[in-house]
Write a structure and sequence with these properties.
The protein is an alpha/beta fold. It has 14 helices and seven strands. The chain has a seven-stranded mixed sheet with strand order 3-2-1-4-5-7-6, with helices on both faces. Strand 4, helix 6 and strand 5 form a beta-alpha-beta unit.
């Protein structure tokens, strides 16, 4: 039975309240190589924006905000979990946080140059409402940057692998499969969070199986944007090549896989989505 909006909000508050204290040390997107990658993206986006006013949706403990203070002049972060917001660093004087839902933002139309949502929209019951709000508060020509969203093509490939349980898999493939299929078990063991609560907190990933790259591209104009690009990120085994061989080798493989898209799209775990209003 599909949960309603209130149930999904409650589940997210419960899950992220329990995770808040260790979130910055346990989540893989805080690793140095990813922080450097995202920081460079933000630098590029700031150069494209006409102004420096930014809104970060689902800001959590401030992963993106911490990187963005080097580039943006005024930053607003929105999140529904007070325990996460309490850890956002506002010492720069540029940052203001807001404890509210993203489906009804407390901002005027056309008031931001840049809107971001990092590893966030899969936590929503229906991401479309939030993206319409993002389009509403963006100025014409403004950019909405979304990243680290689960690629539905990858999720399906991992689920299909589970039907071949007797098949011997390379360790990094088995690890990728388990990161999709066994995360609820690990979260229950580590944090005591009920599996159904966790599934509701990541509804678009755990229940719907991630974000479809073609679908969100096709929806972009209806959501209020004039342009959209979707780029796959973090192919299966990329971290193992980075740390077991070299960053240069990892980049060589990445460039090759990008060159044979769309055949290679199911090998990338996440999606980066960039809208222009």
């Amino acid at each position: 039975m599909q949960p309603d909006h209130k149930e999904v909000v409650r589940a997210n508050v419960e899950v992220h309240s329990r995770m808040a204290a260790t979130y910055n040390t346990l989540e893989p997107h805080f690793r140095p190589e990813n922080r450097a990658k995202v920081s460079e993206k933000l630098r590029t986006f700031r150069a494209r924006c006409a102004g420096g006013k930014m809104l970060d949706l689902g800001c959590g403990t401030g992963f993106l905000i911490d990187l963005a203070v080097d580039y943006f002049d005024e930053i607003h972060g929105v999140d529904i979990t007070p325990a996460m917001l309490a850890q956002v660093d506002t010492s720069s004087g540029k940052v203001t946080v807001h404890n509210t839902v993203v489906e009804k933002l407390p901002f005027e139309d056309n008031s931001f140059d840049f809107v971001s949502a990092y590893s966030f929209i899969h936590h929503l019951l229906d991401y479309r409402t939030a993206l319409r709000e993002a389009a509403r508060v963006l100025r014409p020509g403004g950019i909405c940057y979304i990243d680290l969203e689960p690629n539905r093509l990858f999720w399906k490939a991992m689920v299909d692998l589970d039907g071949k349980a007797n098949q011997s898999l390379p360790p990094h493939v088995a690890k990728a499969r388990d990161s999709v299929l066994k995360v609820e078990v690990k979260v229950e063991q580590d944090f005591g969070i009920d599996r159904e609560v966790f599934r509701n907190a990541e509804y678009s990933k755990s229940v719907l199986g991630g974000i479809d790259p073609d679908e969100i591209y096709q929806e972009s104009k209806e959501l209020g944007f004039s342009a959209c690009s979707v780029r796959p990120e973090w192919y299966l085994g990329q971290a193992e090549i980075m740390h077991g061989q070299s960053f240069a080798d990892a980049l060589t493989v990445e460039n090759y896989l990008r060159g044979i898209a769309p055949v290679s799209l199911p090998l990338f775990k996440y999606l980066e989505i960039v809208f222009v209003k």
